[in-house]
Amino acid sequence: MTPRRTIDVSRLPTYAFGHHALTWWATWSMILMEGTMLVILLISYFFLRTAVPEWPPAHTLPPNLFWGTLNTAIILASVFPNQLAKKAAESLDVKGVRLWMIVTLLFGVAFAVVRIFEFKNLNCHWQQNAYGSIVWFNMGFHTAHVLTDMVDTVVLIVLMFVGPIEGPRFVDVSENSIYWNFVVVIWLLIYSVIYLAPRFL
Amino acid sequence: MALLPVALTVTSCKREERNFNTPPPNVSEAQTNPSFKNPLEENAYSLSEGKRLFSQYNCNGCHAQGGGGMGPALMDEKWIYGARPEQVFATIVEGRPNGMPSFRDRVPETQVWQLSAYVRSLSGHVPKDAASSRDDHMQGKPPESRTKEQPIKNTSPP
Amino acid sequence: MTPETATKTDDALHRELEKTWGDKPGIWGSLTSVNHKTIGKRFIVTAFCFFVFAGILAVLMRIQLARPENHFIGADLYNQIFTMHGTTMMFLFAVPIMEAIAVFLVPLIVGTRSIAFPRLNAFGYWIFLFGGIMIFVAFILNVGPDAGWFAYVPLAGPQYAPGKRVDFWAQLITFTEVSALVVATELITTIFKLRAPGMSLNRIPVYVWSILVMAFMVFFAMPTIALASTSLILDRLVSTHFFNPAEGGDPILWQHLFWFFGHPEVYIIFIPATGFVSAIIPTFVRRPIFGYTALVLSLISTAFIGFGLWVHHMFAAGLPKMGQSFFTAATLMIVIPSGVQIFCWIATIWSGRPIFKTPFLFSLGFFFVFIMGGLTGVMLASWPLDLQLHDTYFVVAHFHYVLIGGAVFPLFGALHYWFPKFTGHMLSESLGKVTFWLMFIGFNLAFFPMHILGLIGMPRRVYTFQAMNGWAGLNLLATIGGVVLTLGVLVFIINFFINRKRGELAAENPWGASTLEWATSSPPPSYNFLHIPTVAGRDTLWVQPEDQPVVVGIRSDVRQVLITKMLDAEPEHIDQFPEPTIWPLLAALSATGLFIGSIFNPWAVVWGSIPVTVSLIAWFWPKGRKAEERPPKEVQQNLGEQKLNAQEEAA
Amino acid sequence: MRARQINWGFLTWVALVNTTVAATTQSSVDPAGPQAQHISQLWWVMLYLLTGVFILVMSLLSIGAFRRRSKAAETSGRNVIQTDSLRETKMARVVMGGVVVTTVILFALLVSSFIVGRTIYSIPKEPTVLTIDITGHQWWWDVRYENQVASQIVTTANEIHIPVGRQILFKLNSADVIHSFWVPNLHGKTDLIPGHPAETWLKADRTGVYRGQCAEFCGHQHAHMAFEVVVESEEQFQAWYESQLKSAPAQLTSSQSRGLQLFLSKPCVMCHTIQGTDAGGKVGPDLTHLASRQTIAAGALQNNRTNLSRWILNSQDVKPGNHMPPIPLNSEELNFVLDYLESLK
């Protein structure tokens, strides 16, 4: 009986970053399906827009620019701490991760608070007409994403303090930052549609 | 999961059935028995039929969107001729002074009960999960399924 | 795998792996299981049960339509029944069972220990199960949806569908769509990252390719229906106006959204079925599949074109004529990749030496039925002709030929083919042949007459018809055929129950097939392979040398899984998979509470999300990993290696 | 005439699967108008061509599967055929050829359906002589013949009379949910979608009665939402139109006038219109000329006294869920009402 030829893999690392990691695939799957949903949502927005002569309909003002724009600024600013958190995670720097995740979270909280004022200043209600419905749907869609990612961030921060500190946690952090970037990108799209399209189209 | 069937049974049976030949509730029984409840008020289909008839029989000609006009508003808390199902029934069948015609014989009893149920739903006096939702017209008022239950004030005719 | 797999050391290894990967004993064990084979089997059986329920509903409809002005079932109940039949077949049977079989097989075929994200997999099953239970309980309580599986507004809207019937339909969509999406995620990750060393992309079996394509289609189709059903339920519950023409909404929007999902849905069902055929044929004609590359490319192009023809469901809605011609062209175009596949299969059979076992018979039946369905599809693609045939029984005949021919026949072939791998026992060959002939004859009896019925003017979705139209005879014939078809399925079920425990014991590779799932015992052990195999070429088991190397150095005391590179499947790193847990079940339960609650009170979305969040956090909370008991230095160094790998790959 | 003889081919095909002979009053392959004519020609082209394709592929498959094979097919230890590259390339060429042929056929079909599409939708040359407004209701069809002069407007239900050989414009609207207007012998479907007024035109080449039916699922009684298109000579049509313009007869027999009284005091009056009486309901079909129609209840019943009484007393037994309530009448009252309704010629 000949001894079986073998390949020894015992020296391989027990986790990896980027597209080597399984969680990276999960994150991007999420992004892919949510992205599809957003695209369809925006297409529906313009589909409904073509159905009526004026947009927003008569006696309706487009959403007030101030709060929406402020929030856009906030979420754009949050990209930097977010990236730093990602960098820190990929160099396994626990302190850096803790610091920058908390900063990112604070930006998130600020965003969520301003979001309340945004809703107050949409100048429409979903019960009024299709315009109101689609605007609120877009806003609700994005708010849901913000909240999801904030919960995720909180959990990871806690883990980073109570441990156990393990390689995969750092991978999770970097994936979490990727997802936050996605939340930022879809906001830019939604902002330009909800706030700018009715004014300039 | 075991709870689910139970929960649904409680909520569903009365609400969902669509008996197209419902014998109307007995009127005399309704007027004598103080604790009478109109069974059609818990049935989504009957309420939607009531809503359909309300516009098709042109009730909203005088009670526009339930918001009133020539006739009194049916959405507020004021009830001139009583808010109980059989009282609304009587109002439709008998007619009332100042313009409310009598529909005796011309509207079958079952339909009157359906209308009575719908009228009461306008001020939120029927189960929310059975009340009609918005219809495919311009929105004059929030749908019955989202109407707060109004207190009942019995008032005299103007 | 090779004869030497029963040495003493292997025996010890077996016991340790069994301890590591096995489910916990007892009912608790089955509730907490995250093993892709346990879940997969459940998934298959559950989906098949829904197939049986929907079949029973179909028989009831056929009885009602056996003669004109029949009073067996009233209009109201009939509308619920045909809606439930369509909804169940599409959302609770066809898509789930394709995913279910993939959940069981794919990890075996790509040669790994587990599916990626096993807990998510368990969650996907539970949420599917609860959704199914919900809709059937609702149906039994006379809250069954009654606006058709396509739920066109305004008929499905708040004004014309009073009560909660359609709300339950819309929420069922949410359940099945969540389930489909998470399973798609696992399958894609498994196929890209967990393949055995050496199984580079161009060596993946065609079946696995079909699953990969299907999973990607799910990503683009399901979100659309999720969005549509959400806006429908918002219209119904909180009176938004997406579909209210009086307030700027548009019923056509629903049709676009629904069919942009609805048409790809058909290919989500059909593509894995072609995968079955591509797996069965080579085994039973004893030669490698002909035109591997062509087959894979046609799968991919089918997926792409599949998203470009939804409007052919709306030809009668009076859209711009130019658009109609475009969609006619697109629809005809999709015939080409299907044609390529069919020609490749025929070539394979032609140059092989067929062995006429049941699975192969079902593949042959597939050709007959599916090709006829495809050709009537060509007719329907032509929009002038579609104006006459649309929404008639001709269409009913067409899509049953396509779906039963294109999906159910291959599925039954697959069930007969992989049954030994699922259970360790062989199905009775003779009963299998009886099943095939009953189903084949019954099916054609039931559905061929419907072509003619459609041509002579019988519309779809009618609970009865009038004698004057001369439809009686054909309808009666269809009913008889339906009964025969049912008998066929019944024989299969009997065959299943007779042989699932007492059937002749199955060897590792009873059919002498070429793919890796046949390289381990039947049924496979909880850990799939004693040693992770390596792959020397396509048709692995046919081409590999006797001394094909195996992978060692993966710890057997923790759930370690080898991760390989996406393209060439070289070993990349070792990941540790989670233990069994109850949390996916609890998460699914709380999600169910949220979904059902929201039907009765919108606020349920808010308070319902709290238990969901809690269970999800508990689910993902790490318990620390034995594999990490190393100095940070080494972690650093591993990271270095890993960076190195990255560079290699870049190069 | 080609279509007719082809139709015989069709009937034999039907006979092949030994079934009842196809009724032709509601058939898309027994065309009575230009559009249906063109479409059915397209159908026959496709049927014969694709049947050919089917037979070809099936015979290829069966030969491939069942042909006798030489015992000496060399196989490896695993009993698997060794493919030789030369043969494989040959097969590849054949497959390629197959694909090319498929593409060619598809292109031919594409072109032919383009052509048919253009013809059936090309803007009609001749001026529109007659415009008919069709409104779909759950579950009946409201029919109004447009006219500038209000008194010249004819309103009827579930029965459309048109002159032969003339081109008629139909304006389609829905009062509630989506319906689909379909007369197989004349033309394909056009959906009636709320908020989307639609138009279609029909033209009949031969006189006769052609049955149409709603082709989009529209609720409980979708199965009983039919109508009839009566194609008559110009003169017959004019005569019919004149009679429809008249209002209900003024002088009535005693029993008929009792019937009218009942009609006005019972639920009937809430929904139905009878020109020349106080009955002006717009919920249900216009009954001014009820007696002149072939069917009642949107094609559900033949129009005769028995069916009428059945319908009035409890329409819910005939069409469960339809919007007409059971009318409480004793047999005497019923007879008066029937007498009156039958006078509405």
Descriptive tags:
heterotetramer, C: 651 residues, mainly alpha, Cytochrome C Oxidase, Chain A, two-stranded antiparallel sheet, 4 strands, disordered N terminus, disordered C terminus, D: 345 residues, alpha+beta, Immunoglobulin-like, 12 strands, elongated
Tell me about this structure.
The complex is a heterotetramer of chains A (201), B (158), C (651) and D (345). Chain A has 201 residues and is mainly alpha-helical. Helices cover 74% and strands 1% of the residues of chain A. Chain A has a domain at 62-200: Four Helix Bundle (Hemerythrin (Met), subunit A) (Up-down Bundle). Chain A is built from 6 helices and 1 strand. The mean pLDDT of chain A is 92. By secondary structure, chain B is an all-alpha fold. Chain B has a single domain, classed as Cytochrome Bc1 Complex, Chain D, domain 2 (Orthogonal Bundle), CATH 1.10.760.10. Chain B is built from 5 helices and 2 strands; from the N terminus they run H-H-H-E-H-H-E. In chain B, strands 1-2 form a two-stranded parallel ribbon. Chain B starts with a helix and ends with a strand. The model of chain B has no long low-confidence stretch (mean pLDDT 86). Chain D has 345 residues and is of the alpha+beta class. Chain D has 3 domains: 2-66 and 76-121, no CATH class; 130-245, Immunoglobulin-like (Sandwich), CATH 2.60.40; 254-342, Cupredoxins -  blue copper proteins (Immunoglobulin-like), CATH 2.60.40. In chain D, strand 11 (295-296) and strand 12 (301-302) form a beta hairpin. The radius of gyration of chain D is 28 Å and the shape is elongated. Chains in contact: A-B, A-C, B-C, B-D, C-D. Chains C and D meet through helix 4, helix 8, helix 10, helix 11 and helix 12 of C and helix 1, helix 2, helix 3 and strand 7 of D.
